[in-house]
Amino acid sequence: MILPTITNAEFIKDRKISLTTKNYYFDRDYINNIPYPTARDWAQGFILNAKSGYTSGNIGFGLDVLALAGFNLMGNNKGYAASGLLPVDRNNERPDQTGELRWTLKTKVSDSTVHIGTLSPMFPVIFSSPARLFQQNYRGAHLQFNEIKDLKLHGLYVDRVNHRDSTNYEKIRIGNINGRFKAAAESSGLHMFGAEYQFSEGIKADLYHANLHDVYYQNFIGVKTKHDVGIGNVRGDFRVFLSEDAGKELAGKIDNQHLSGIVGLNIHNHTLSFGYMQSLGDTAMPTLSNAEPAVFMDSISADFTNQNEKVISLRYDYDFKDTALNGLKFMARYSQGTDIEIPRLKGDIFKEDSYDLDLNYRIPSGVFKGIGFRTRYTRYRNDLPNERIVFRPANETRVNIDYTWNF
Questions:
Q1: Count: domains in the chain
Q2: CB within 10 Å: which end of the chain, N or C, has fewer?
């Protein structure tokens, strides 16, 4: 009778199983056709996420399984640059289908948990990019301590990454966009410690420390606020990243202090926000390869974190709740970065700007409740030279249709 005791009611009863279908069209049309005129793909993804409950007892055990299947809907055009939706081989060819199976073992003591295996960390210092068909994953262990009210403590170690357009684990690297550092150095692993504290309903603070072994240290301080002001509420998001080289300095010298903040006024369905970012120090802000920096400005065209860059961003959001178009959300944003320095282009100063539009609709009721439609458009420009430059001037369109069944 040992087996029924282990696979008890909580393990089965508390399970969560979902199937998400995700249709993704990606079209980045470059202004200068060097070396490709466009990055374009269309794919259909299926994401099965099965999470067990925990066995009973002082120490509970469980298992999470993630199954992924992706299908190429556009065919194979070697004249298009890789978009990140599908794997691409050395001949720039996409497969007709792709997929894999990932798993995570977990255990729970009181309210605290440990997960070992496939992880999708969403922290300021290590952020699993969800911006393509499948989310970026890491291999490692994550401890979350939840024993003190309003406080969460995190400990994380990862040694491999599975990128969003890959089915293989590989070593973790520093992102070396436009030769910002000495090399796109590989590391043996990354460890992180962090704390989140909810001071009140309107104030939350985060502290994190990460060490990409022999490459860089990064500390993060963040504060989010929300206060009622009579006619509406004022929301703030302030972030500081402090980064320096570590150990063997495999990527060379790293010295960066990145400051950012955004303040928004929300009145009924309208929100108007103004943000500012500035990069200080002798290098750009370091981030992990193929991951977005966790700054407040989630631009799809560029990261706006170059050496010495100063960025202003003006954003407007409208939520159609309580109208005939309930479920629809609209966003428009203009961002401009100036005083950009590129190490291999010494002596020159550059600038960039981006216009972003985002229309997101999720059917709120009826037979088709939950189906989501999202369209994003970006016009991105900079005055950097064309040769060997990432984030080239482009007009970009992304269209997503998704739906999730919960079982």
A1: 1
A2: N
Structural domain harbouring 247: 110-406
Find out whether the peptide bond into 343 is cis, omega within 30 degrees of 0: no
Rounded CA-CA distance 400/22 in Å is: 7
Identify whether 299 is part of a domain: yes
Within a domain: 244: yes
Cβ 372 vs Cβ 400: under 8 Å: yes
Contact (CB, 8 A) for 95 and 124: no
Q: Is residue 50 part of a domain?
A: no
Q: For residue 161, give the CATH number of its domain.
A: 2.40.160.10
**What tokens were used for 330?**
């609209």
DSSP state of 302: -
**Segments of 268-301 assigned E as strands:** 270-280
CB 396 within 8 A of CB 27: yes
Q: What is the pTM of this model?
A: 0.94
**Residue 179 phi, psi dihedral angles, 5° rounding:** 65, 40
Q: Is residue 29 part of a domain?
A: no
Nearest residue to 67 via CA among 42, 96, 94, 103? 103
From the CB of residue 78, how many other CB atoms can be counted at a distance below 10 Å? Answer: 10
User: For the segment 266-311, what is each residue's pLDDT rounded down to a tens digit?
Assistant: 999 999 999 999 999 999 999 999 998 999 988 888 999 999 999 9
Instruction: At 207, list the tokens.
Output: 């502290």
303 vs 187: CA distance, rounded Å: 22
Name the CA radius of gyration of the chain, rounded.
Answer: 22
Distance CA 152, CA 34 (A): 47
Which tens digits make up the pLDDT trace of 118-177?
A: 999 999 999 999 999 999 999 999 999 999 999 999 999 999 999 999 999 999 999 999
Report which of 378, 340, 339 is spatially closest to residue 357, judged by C-alpha positions: 378
